[in-house]
Automatic annotation (TrEMBL):
Predominant place of localization: secreted
UniProt subcellular location: Secreted
Signal sequence interval, chain numbering: 1-16
Single GO cellular component term: extracellular region
EC number: 3.2.1.4
Keywords: Glycosidase, Hydrolase, Secreted, Signal
Name this polypeptide is given: cellulase
Keyword Nucleotide-binding: no
Catalytic activity: Endohydrolysis of (1->4)-beta-D-glucosidic linkages in cellulose, lichenin and cereal beta-D-glucans
EC primary class: hydrolase
Residue ranges constituting the CBM1 domain according to the UniProt record: 16-52
């Protein structure tokens, strides 16, 4: 999401206030300690407090420490491009082709391993956590068949993009992936870094390719693993975004990972509603295995950031992805909505249903969608999808289950 708890790691300087759902306190926290208007700093555990509209109950797991150097030798500079305008397009613009009327995937994003982003490498159970297996098993039992596991590149390879793995972090990440895939679901590896490493835009494409080759080798034999090149590139040179996606594909295939799908993401936070204004050059991406899926994100609040529980209208879901549907079909591509959510209210519920109905009606080009977001530390987060009591889960589970494969 555009404004997530990761935001502070990518800033060039300290924020005066932490944004919605951002970190605002905890041992060794050096960032903002107050929240924007409408949010209060809520204690989650000794190492993590969060800007929330209401109090959240802390949830922790067993604590395991990781130990690696923090310094990075990769030095890059940020290239900023203008953001696309956020105009919506009519759902009628997308014409339905021969579609099965059934989604291939429906799942839930899993956050936690990317938390505590101002403390590297951090300690499991203090600065970050991993998804809860029991919660994911509940969802798998209800028909959800995909989980997008967010993690931090800086924790996986603490020194440089081409450096060695942190063994403990890799072990925990792999245990999560294996749990998901052994249960019969798909696990998306999501480096939740916004095209950056230690806050700097990644411009070393050769190093990025090597990073992906090294990562993909760990999972090359698991056909239920999916590789997501990076979460939500933004404010970057558009050709660089194209090149980073392409070298990621090249690196993954060079690792011998030839059976897996690769999810590519676009600039401007990979938004579906701005895709045809920003990311049309990504049509030229190539994969010898022909298993590219274009991952787009779509929120339904006024600025599309996913920071408000208020949706623009009851029809905004289908409207905001219509132009992307037409683009996918015109170019013979397949896509997935890798993040979507709406507030726990009737207007948003209708908008979410409209979005899912649109995906299902256009399943010749849309493979599915993933709700944002699950994970054990979300507390009372407006979109939290953690069984049994997450706000989004309790309000939307009965609806989303109608769309499971």
């Amino acid at each position: 999401m555009k404004s997530s708890i990761l935001a502070t790691v990518f800033a060039t300087g300290a924020f005066a206030q932490s944004g919605a759902w951002g970190q605002c306190g905890g041992i060794n926290h050096s960032g903002a300690t107050t929240c924007v208007s409408g949010y209060s700093c809520v204690y989650v555990n000794d190492w993590y407090s969060q800007c929330q509209p209401s109090a959240a109950a802390p949830t922790t797991t067993a604590k395991t420490t990781t130990s690696s150097a923090v310094a990075t030798t990769l030095k890059t500079s940020t290239t900023t491009t203008a953001k696309a305008s956020s105009t919506t397009s009519s759902a009628a613009a997308a014409t339905t082709s021969a579609a099965s009327g059934k989604l291939k995937w429906l799942g839930v994003n899993q956050s936690g391993a990317e938390f505590g982003n101002d403390v590297f490498p951090g300690t499991w159970g203090k600065h970050f956590t991993f998804p809860d297996n029991a919660a994911m098993q509940t969802l798998i039992g209800q028909g959800y068949n995909m989980f997008r596991v967010a993690f931090s590149m800086e924790r996986l390879t603490p020194n440089t993009l081409t450096g060695a793995f942190d063994a403990a972090y890799l072990k925990n990440l792999t245990a999560t992936v294996n749990y998901i895939t052994n249960a019969g679901a798909y696990a998306i590896l999501d480096p939740h870094n916004f095209g950056r490493f230690y806050g700097n835009v990644i411009t070393d494409t050769a190093a990025f390719q090597t990073w992906w080759t090294n990562v993909a080798k760990q999972y090359a034999s698991n056909s239920k693993v999916i590789f997501d090149t990076n979460n939500e590139y933004h404010d970057m040179d558009q050709t660089l975004v194209l090149n980073l996606n392409q070298v990621a594909i090249n690196g993954i295939r060079a690792a011998g990972a030839t059976s897996q799908y690769i999810f590519v993401e676009g600039n401007s936070y990979s938004g579906a509603w701005t895709w045809t204004q920003v990311n049309t050059n990504l049509v030229s991406l190539t994969d010898p295995q022909n298993k590219i899926v274009y991952e787009m994100h779509q929120y339904l609040d006024s600025d599309g950031s996913g920071t408000s529980a208020t949706c623009v209208s009851s029809t905004i879901g289908a409207e905001r992805i219509a132009s992307a549907t037409a683009w996918l079909r015109a170019n013979g591509k397949q896509g997935i909505i890798g993040e979507f959510a709406g507030g726990a209210n009737s207007v948003c519920q209708a908008a979410v249903k409209g979005l899912l109905d649109h995906l299902k009606a256009n399943s010749d080009v849309w493979t599915g969608g993933l709700w944002w977001g699950g994970g054990p530390w979300w507390g009372d987060y407006i979109f939290g999808y953690e069984p049994p009591s997450g706000t989004g889960y309790t309000y939307y589970n009965s609806l989303l289950r109608n769309y499971t494969p």
